[in-house]
Amino acid sequence: MKQLLYNSSFFVLLFIALVSVTLVFCDWMKRAPNETFIKIDGDGKDYYSYLTSAFITKDLAHLKPDNNFVVETPTGNINLHPVGVAVLQLPFFGLGYVGALLSQQPLDGYSLPFQLAIGFAALFYAIIGFLFIYKTLVNLQFQKNVVFWSLFCLFFGTTLLHYTITEPSMSHIYSFALISAFIYYAQKLSQQFSSRDLYLLAILLGLIILVRPVNAIVLLVIPFFYKSVSDLKHQLKLLVTQKKQLLLAVVITLAI
Predict the structure, then answer these.
(1) In this predicted model, what pLDDT tens digit does every residue of 48-75 receive, in sequence order?
(2) What is the model's pTM?
(3) Which of 18, 67, 73, 180 sits CB 3.0–4.6 Å from 129 for a disulfide?
(4) H helices of 104-171, where?
(5) In 174-202, which positions are buried (b, 16+ CB within 10 angstroms) versus exposed (e)?
(6) What is the largest CA-CA distance in the chain?
(7) For 143, phi and psi rounded to 5 degrees?
(8) 205-216 pLDDT per residue, tens
């Protein structure tokens, strides 16, 4: 019954996806005949460069240095960007590689199939983020019109639209997806302890830090899911009693 009540919010997600695909297509069509379709650029190119270095040039030690994020050292060049974005882009990079093979385009990591693949990677993670925002709002029993307009305004009234369509290789949309999922499982855990949810939180936290270490500040949101300080203390005491599960969760996060 609850699922039917919130069907209008799924319409918003579908609308967001259709608008995003349309805007990417329009961006592709408006370019000049000899102009390259570019979605991997700026700082996003540095995040992405781990993939080209690992699978195209097969040399992580000789990245091309620039003035900002790839620096020369006596033992090789170092990319100062975290590797997390590249990890999340990896499946789409693979699709781009297959697409380049089938269409006989350059396997350099930057030809049209790769550019399109990273463009759709951002859309995929945007939708994942919105799905978890939706699930969190439903779980918190917000009214359906609040859920509907929250999703709508979040995409069309913030820079999420820009980072999904214009700069899909930047870290922002990947952080949005992971943090949205983290908030959902943290909220669930606040209602009822579950080892599964704890481990999922550990995986998400590891990926969040891997994408952008400062995003670990998301941990500060957890206390706000409790109705009182006593409820929070009760949950912390419960966690302490689950020593094996807690230790495994810490190991999972550190391993990632």
Answers:
(1) 989 998 899 888 776 766 656 677 778 7
(2) 0.87
(3) 180
(4) 112-139, 144-156, 160-165
(5) bbbbbbbbbbbbbbbbbeeeeeebbbbbb
(6) 65
(7) -65, 150
(8) 999 999 999 999
